[in-house]
Amino acid sequence: MKLFLPAQTILLPSPVLIIGTYGSDGRPNIMNASWGGIASSKPPCISVSLREATLTYHNIKQAGAFTVNIPSEKYFKEADFVGMVSGRDCDKFKQTGLTPEKSKLVNAPIVKEFPYSLECNLVRQIDLGPLNAIWSGRLILACIQCSLEKLSEWSLIARF
Predict the structure, then answer these.
(1) Which of 45, 59, 101, 150 is the 20 to 30 Å CA partner of 87?
(2) Which 8-state DSSP code applies to residue 87?
(3) Residue 140 lies inside a defined structural domain of this protein
(4) Per-residue confidence at 155, pLDDT binned at 50, 70, 90?
(5) Residue 31 structural domain
(6) pTM of the predicted model, to two decimals?
(7) φ, ψ for residue 43 (rounded to 5)?
(8) Alpha carbon 72 to chain centroid, angstroms
């Protein structure tokens, strides 16, 4: 039996994407944005949908860059927390005990404790109405924590 539902924003499972940005004051910020994913393979791009009310929306607009950080299961509470509070109201890195680390090639922080981060330069903003926009970023570099025995496997996969 199939259940038919009216149109709604449901896509399961939803990814856990922690978006890293710097504010105009240089302060690092992260937020949980589950509305995102791979947008293109050539050029390699990822897109994320954000509300204009978020600090991350404005940080990406001014900096032209963002990171996509993927947490391990160990950090599910921290990942949930950074999606529940605004970076305008608190320092999410300080509150969670996570560590901002300068990315190698773009003007946005990565989360040191997370095993997988993507560095992206903004390619395009697509407005979806008065409150939302899709941000597409070109993948510049992937940062992957892995053991030496897995390094050769990743080097074959992670070529952009």
Answers:
(1) 45
(2) T
(3) yes
(4) low
(5) 18-157
(6) 0.88
(7) -75, 155
(8) 14
- CATH code at 57? 2.30.110.10
Rg of the chain's alpha carbons, rounded to an integer?
Answer: 16
Count how many domains the chain has: 1
Q: Distance (Å, rounded) from C-alpha 13 to C-alpha 19?
A: 18
Q: Which of 34, 32, 26, 17 minimizes the C-alpha distance to 108?
A: 26
Distance CA 36, CA 69 (A): 12
Q: Residue 150's pLDDT is what?
A: 60
148/145 Cα distance (integer angstroms): 10
Could you give the CA distance from residue 67 to residue 62 in angstroms, rounded to a whole number?
14
pLDDT, tens digit, for every residue of 44-83?
999 999 999 999 999 999 999 999 999 999 999 999 999 9
DSSP 42: T
Q: Is residue 2 part of a domain?
A: no
Positive or negative, the CA dihedral 75, 78, 82, 88 is negative
